[in-house]
Sequence to fold (236 residues):
Amino acid sequence: MLEVIQAIITALGSAITLFVLSKLMGNREMSQLSVFDYINSITIGSIAAEMATGEFTDILKPFTAMIVFAILNLSLSLLTNKSLKLRRLITGKPSILYDKGQIYYKNLSKAKMDLGEFLAQCRVNGYFDLSNIQTAILEANGKISFLPVSDNRPVTGKDLNIHPEQEQLVANVIIDGQMMPLNLKHLGLDEKWLSKQLHLHDIYDASEVFLATCDFNHKLCIYKKINEEMNIDVLE
Fold:
């Protein structure tokens, strides 16, 4: 029984410590990971797991190790902000994968990325035809940035010399068949209003809706639940 209590205490302690250190190191640890960030996150996570499952008398060693790695991360962050050379050494630098109709095979190889994976990333970003892409750059965090060909770039209000009204965020008013009363209240609406709108779309039960969104102009978008599968074969 004592061992169980000790395990609970160390698990809670490691979780709290990991949370505090993650906050101190910044949200970049969870989003735009560099190689060092990736290694550092895995290491601290492994130490936290060891701290949670190890003997109660060993708590000081993993706790100290976590603090050391956090300090190392913060120190390198400060140094890389001041030194471009060190920043490129630690975080890496962008690499051109595609430019003006040319695929750079060597850069793909250095990035450990094959042609199929590159084409998949193009499709994920909405480019099913390489001729619509001017340049594709592999960023240091592993994501690919795309510069579209000017002729295929979406027309902006500035291009047409017009000033459209600023769009606002939409709120989810139904999620997986469940109405969101707080979100409706934020829009100045209620469940009664939403039910009436559903009836206009021949929907008489919110459980039929997978997702419904609404903006501040009370424009409702409804996505019904569809149980059918949609399959497609894509040639690489």
Q: What stands out?
A: The beta strands are 95-99, 102-103, 133-138, 144-148, 171-175, 178-179, 209-214, 220-224. The CA atoms of residues 4 and 224 lie 47 Å apart.
